[in-house]
Amino acid sequence: MNAQQRELRELYQDTDERTEPFDPLTLSGEGCVLLAAEEGGKLLACGALKRWDRDSAEVKRMYTVPGARGCGLGRALLHELIARGRAAGYRRLVLETGDQQAAALALYERAGFRRIPNFGYYEGMDNSLCYELPLQDT
Questions:
Q1: What is the C-alpha to C-alpha distance for residues 118 and 129, in angstroms, rounded to an integer?
Q2: Which of 22, 59, 94, 96 has the most neighbouring CB atoms within 10 Å?
Q3: What is the phi-psi region of residue 104: left when phi exceeds 0, alpha when psi lies from -120 to 50, beta otherwise?
Q4: What is the pLDDT of residue 76?
Q5: Total domain count, the chain
Q6: Are 65 and 38 in contact (CB under 8 A)?
Q7: What percent of the chain has pLDDT over 70?
Q8: N-acetyltransferase domain spans which residues (predicted)?
């Protein structure tokens, strides 16, 4: 997680240490999922679902290390998180990403996520973009 935060601070030229609080224990509760891809004991990519309520979960901490980008790991993890969200009975997934993260924006939009007004912690943050994916049976 530290590498992700360092990369985001550099990308946004942000010297403010304020970030959304991250407590791994909040990802270990009922309805939460933490996924990772590793090779040879090295973490390559990760992502999580954090339960909001009975109907909703937030995609959190999507990250692929720079040397593993372009291999489809982020896409595979996101698709698995979507599948796990459906299996858990969530009606929708939401997420936040930054406006300078073109690869992330493309990934989420290709997966069917659509822009929504900024929510919760992200309200009023100019660089934040929030998305939603309805999980209806088709």
A1: 6
A2: 59
A3: alpha
A4: 95
A5: 1
A6: no
A7: 76
A8: 1-136
